[in-house]
Amino acid sequence: MVKVHITPKEADLRVERAVQLFKEGYNCSQSVVGAFADLYGFTQEQALLMSASFGGGIGRMRQTCGAACGMFVLAGLQSGTTIGSDREGKSRNYAMVQQLAESFKQINGSMICAELLGLKSNAEITAQASERTDSYYKKRPCSEMVRTAARLFANAISQD
To answer: Can you give the residue ranges of every domain in the chain?
Structure first.
C-alpha cells in the first residue's frame, strides 16, 4: 500500500485540476480520480478508465454521486489493503470511506446523485451522456460536487 501525503498548496492545485477535468468533459468520477491517481503510480489513461463507470451516479443511474465514488476509489488507493484476511486494514479503509462520506453528506445534504440534481424518483434513466454546454454547467451542481469530493480527499491526505 502506497500512502501519499501532499502539501496544502498541492492540495489546492489537485482540487482545481479535478474541476478543470470536469469542465473538459470528463465525468464527475473521472475528474476526481484523474486529479490524484498519478500520486499512486497510475497513468492518466488508467485513472480515467478505472473511474469511467461511476459517472452520473454509477453508470448514469443516479445512485451514489460519481464524485463521491471517485473519492472512495482514491480512499482505497490511500488506505486499502491487498490481503484478504487483513481485517484491520479493511476496517481502516472503511473508516476513511465512512468519514469522507459523512463529510460529503454534511456539506451537500446527500450523496445520492438524483437528490443532488433535484430529480424526481421516477425520472427516466438513460445511458445517453448529456451534451456539455454552458446551460449544462449552469443548471447542474456537478462541478461543486467534484470540488467537494476532491477537497475532502485532498484534506485527508494532506493531514494524514
So the answer is: 8-120+131-159
